[in-house]
Write a structure and sequence with these properties.
InterPro entries: Amidohydro-rel, Hydantoinase/dihydroPyrase, Metal-dep_hydrolase_composite, Metal_Hydrolase, Metallo-dep_Hydrolases_sf. Belongs to the metallo-dependent hydrolases superfamily. Hydantoinase/dihydropyrimidinase family. The chain is about 30% helix and about 20% strand. The chain is built from twelve helices and 20 strands. Helix 3 packs parallel to helix 4 and helix 4 crosses helix 7. It is globular, with a radius of gyration of 21 Å. Bound molecules: N-(aminocarbonyl)-beta-alanine and zinc ion (ZN) (3 copies). The site of one zinc ion has 3 residues, from loops.
């Protein structure tokens, strides 16, 4: 039979190999990979370009309201439009449980936000902020069974943080259900204490956001999370790792045979604390947690990507408008850094930054690029087989790259809802030009042509990486 679409003459790259071949697509799936396939109903000439599995961004925040008056800059339409333009075909945002809200209600709420709006496929991680009996005993097990097979816990933030006992309880449920836990590792009390001291000394500018949560704050929490994971015998993913100290903790745990995984993000590779120094509130554009640090930390994160300490590289896209009272630039009494919403946009620039700074500059190879941006996300979060690779039978989720296209990152060219990019002016070599989701063309020669509602919800399998080792310190 013939193909709906043939991608012809490109260089197909997967996490394990690079080869010249045509890609034949039928009914949304990859149907054939071979030289000189017969003509398809539609053809794309990929000569001189790379044909990669579409990016999977397993750490994004979309349309996620926080407790205060801040408003996230992306809903599921603009968020997935921006993701697609950046070469992504799947995102896994969060369904956040507010304290007092049932986890079920949170999940329904996010489905309503996403329904009919997404240009690319999506799943949901859960954020567990209220680990009561209902949550731990009923909702969490049932939701894992329904395909929400990962959840995030926070060791800091007023509205989200769990105490040590709660962490252990949630880890225990994850072990029993086979779910993967993502951990935001920073010490809450240390940050509070540092913040209050800084404020008393009059240091309230955005720059001091970084000073309030230095590397030891991250290192201690990372170590504590690892300790709890060992006690309970549950694999965990330490997300948005920013410092050499935290990388060292993860490597130490891995060398002891513990199943501790790590993720880092573009901001920790190319930004530093110096970016937080701007006139007036400009530094707020770079406020995220953990904060960008120094060149040594950048090197440590690059090394962690190159040597396999990190399994995934995500954006932690968490967009706020700068020039808005509901965003970064606070007014009146709340201009101190502690009131600046944490998070920066990055879903559209994640892949180009790693390609340009990593592949083009020789820090990682093409196989690592594909693994870190796509394949490992699918494997880690229960989408293997369907997503994250180019093989017969997998979903036809593809990003065609022009590896030589050189242009700077400019806010005016991005598709997110934020009014700035922290990477303004950065020179990039290598951009995605055409993006295909389940055989449907979503981005064509750089223009977003996809339709809202083309993206579908993904029930995810249990992660094979979440299997306990079988060595617990838990009594009973
Ligand atoms: O500053 C950040 N990272 N905001 C997003 C929320 C989170 O902690 O991932
Ligand atoms: Zn976090
Ligand atoms: Zn995040
Ligand atoms: Zn469609």
């Amino acid at each position: 039979d013939s193909f709906d679409l043939v991608i012809r003459g490109g260089t197909v790259v997967t996490a394990s190999e690079t080869s010249r071949c045509d890609v034949g697509i039928r009914d949304g799936r990859i149907a054939a990979l071979a030289d000189r396939l017969p003509t398809g109903s539609r053809e794309i000439d990929a000569g001189g370009r790379l044909v990669l599995p579409g990016g999977i961004d397993s750490h994004v925040h979309i349309d996620q309201p926080s407790g205060d008056e801040t408003v996230m800059a992306d809903d599921f339409l603009s968020g997935t439009r921006s993701a697609a333009a950046g070469g992504n075909t799947t995102v896994i945002p969060f369904a956040l449980q507010h304290k007092g809200q049932s986890l079920r209600a949170a999940v329904s709420d996010y489905h309503a936000r996403a329904e009919g709006k997404c240009l690319i496929d999506y799943g949901f991680h859960l954020i567990v902020s209220d680990p009561n009996e209902q949550t731990l005993g009923q909702d969490l097990p049932a939701l894992v069974n329904d395909g929400y097979t990962s959840f995030k816990v926070f060791m800091t933030y007023d509205d989200l943080k769990l105490n040590d006992r709660e962490m252990l309880e949630v880890f225990d449920v994850a072990r029993r259900e086979g779910a993967l836990v993502m951990v935001h590792a920073e010490n809450y009390d240390a940050i509070r204490y540092m913040t209050e001291r800084l404020e008393r000394a009059g240091h309230t500018e955005p720059y001091f956001h970084g000073t309030s949560r230095p590397a030891p704050v991250e290192r201690e929490a990372t170590h504590r999370a690892i300790t709890f994971a060992e006690l309970v015998d549950v694999p965990i993913m330490i997300v948005h790792v920013s410092s050499g100290d935290a990388v060292e903790q993860i490597r130490w745990a891995q060398s002891r045979g513990l199943k501790i995984y790590g993720e880092t993000c573009p901001q920790y590779l190319v930004l530093t604390a110096e970016d937080l120094r701007g006139l007036n509130m400009e530094g707020a554009k770079y406020v995220c947690s953990p904060p960008p640090r120094d060149p040594e930390s950048q090197d440590a994160c690059w090394q962690g990507l190159a040597n396999g300490t990190f399994t995934t590289y995500s954006s932690d896209h968490c967009p706020f408008r700068y020039d808005s009272p509901a965003g970064k630039k606070r007014k009146g009494e709340r201009t101190a850094f502690r009131w600046v919403p944490n998070g920066i946009p990055g879903v559209e620039t994640r892949l180009p930054i790693l390609f340009s700074e990593g592949v083009v500059k020789g820090k990682i190879d093409l196989q690592q690029f594909v693994a870190l941006t796509s394949t490992n996300h699918a494997r880690m979060y229960g989408l293997a087989g369907r997503k994250g690779t180019i093989s017969v039978g997998a979903d036809a989720d593809i990003a065609i790259w022009d590896p030589e296209l050189r242009r700077p990152i400019r806010q005016e060219n991005l598709h997110h809802g934020a009014d700035y990019t922290p990477y303004e002016g950065m020179e990039i070599t290598g951009w995605p030009t055409t993006v295909i989701v389940r055989g449907g063309i979503v981005v064509e020669d750089g223009a977003v042509v996809g339709q809202p509602g083309h993206g579908t919800f993904l029930k995810r399998d249990l992660s094979p990486f979440a299997k306990p080792r079988g060595k617990t310190w838990l009594p009973g």
